[in-house]
């Protein structure tokens, strides 16, 4: 799962606060958008985002999936970790996940860049158009492109181990 603030573009300065989604070898979820101005704390993350995202993932994978997230403060909140241990015992908990490491999340290391390159080919006028283009561009991505990102996951973990936790991109 990935939460990402879409960056401002110098020619328009548009920002879509945050959205969440999940990808796997089986399929992907739709975007779950956070309304502008909402602060994503642990409570909001659990009550709104996880309560939408976990059922969406289960509708794709059933109960057979490993839940991965980064170490954003809302993800590491004690109540969030407790909820995930209870609801999804197969998840990578914050105590075994490297802090601030987008290098291990397929959405972060591959999919966001791909989305940005495709959707910003033409200037975007406003945040409504930004949302529409984000959803449309995501729908155009071939599943084989997602598979490629997911397939890199284990290789990236192994490269990080070989690099003893240091930079490892050159080992891929």
Task: State the main characteristics.
3 strands; 172 residues; Nucleotidyltransferase, domain 5
Question: Could you explain how this protein is built, in words?
Answer:
This protein has 172 residues and is mainly α. The chain has one domain: Nucleotidyltransferase, domain 5, CATH 3.30.420. The protein has helices at 42-61, 73-76, 78-87, 106-119, 127-140, 143-162, and strands at residues 2-4, 18-21, 32-34. It has a three-stranded antiparallel beta sheet, with helices on one face. α1 packs parallel to α3 (78-87).
CATH class: Alpha Beta
Helix content: 40-55%
Taken together, the total number of domains comes to 1
CATH topology: Nucleotidyltransferase, domain 5
Per CATH, which architecture?
2-Layer Sandwich
Main sheet record: 3 strands, antiparallel
